[in-house]
Amino acid sequence: MRVAIIGGGAAGMMCAATLQEMNSATDIFLIERNHSLGKKVIISGGGRCNVTTGIHDVTTVLTNYPRGNKFLTSAMYGFPPEAVYAWFEMHGVPLKTQPDERVFPVSDNGEDVVGVFERLFEKSRVHVLVNHSAISVKKNGKQFAIVCKSKQEVLLVDSVVIATGGQAYRQTGSTGDGYAFASELGHTITPLAPSLNAFFTKEQWPADISGLSFQDALITAFGNRHIFEDRFSSHIRGLVDLLFLHFQR
Ligand SMILES: Cc1cc2nc3c(=O)[nH]c(=O)nc-3n(C[C@H](O)[C@H](O)[C@H](O)COP(=O)(O)OP(=O)(O)OC[C@H]3O[C@@H](n4cnc5c(N)ncnc54)[C@H](O)[C@@H]3O)c2cc1C
Fold first, then answer.
1. Would you state the CATH architecture of domain 2-184?
2. What percent of the chain has pLDDT over 70?
C-alpha cells in the first residue's frame, strides 16, 4: 500500500504519524513544497505553538467552533484534547496548561513540536519529500498520479490525502492549491471565508492603545461611500473578539 500526503503542515504530519502507527508496512510519501516541515506550526502561538486546549469536555470545545462544530465532531471525539496532550507527552514533548486553558510545550518552542514528527519519520516508512511542490493530482485507473514541479518522476499511489492547508499566511507555503486538486478530483468546494482578520488604519492612535482588548465588539468603519459595520462576538471563554495591535503595514 502506498499513500501520498500532500502538505507537510500540522494536518499532514499528524496524518503521516497516525497512518504509520496504524500500519508500519504502508509506504507514506509526505510531499512538502518548503525545504522543511511545519513552517506555519513553528510560527503559531507566537512561536510557542499552542497544541491543544485544557478544556476536556468535547461538547464545550465544539461550541467554540461556531462555523465548524458539525464537521469537527467525529474528529474531536476520536482524538480529544486529552488524547492530544497524552500523544505529545508520550512522544517526548512535555506540555503545560496556562490559566487561559491554552496548552504549550514546556520549552515554549514550537520547533519541539515539529521535531517529534521529524524523529518519528526518520525511523519509519514515511518518505519525507521536501522541496516538492505538487502541481497536479490525477486519477490513474485505481491509483493516483502526482506530478511535482521540476521533478521528472510521476508518483503513483493507492490513496492520496490533501493536507495543503488554507490560504492564510501564504508565505508559509499554504497557497490554497488543495482546493484545485480536490475540485479536479470531483469534490465540491464550499465558499471560503476568513476566520481571523486585521484592519489597518491610516491613524496612528491604535498603536498607543496596543494590547487593549474587547469582547463583544461593534466595529463601524467609514469609507468614502460606504459604512461598514459588523459585530464581533464569539462568547468564547478566554478569547478576545477585538484586539488593538501596534503592527504597521
Ligand atoms: C500567525 C499564526 C498563528 C497561529 N497560532 C496558532 C496557535 O497558537 N494554535 C493553533 O492551534 N493554531 C494556530 N494557528 C493556526 C494553525 O497554524 C493552522 O490551523 C495549522 O497550521 C493548519 O494546519 P494545516 O496542516 O491544515 O495547514 P498548514 O500548516 O498551512 O500546512 C499546509 C502545508 O502544505 C504545504 N503545501 C501547500 N500546497 C502545496 C503543494 N502544492 N505541494 C506541496 N506542499 C504544499 C505548505 O507548504 C504547508 O506546509 C496559527 C496560524 C497563524 C498563521
1. 3-Layer(bba) Sandwich (3.50)
2. 98
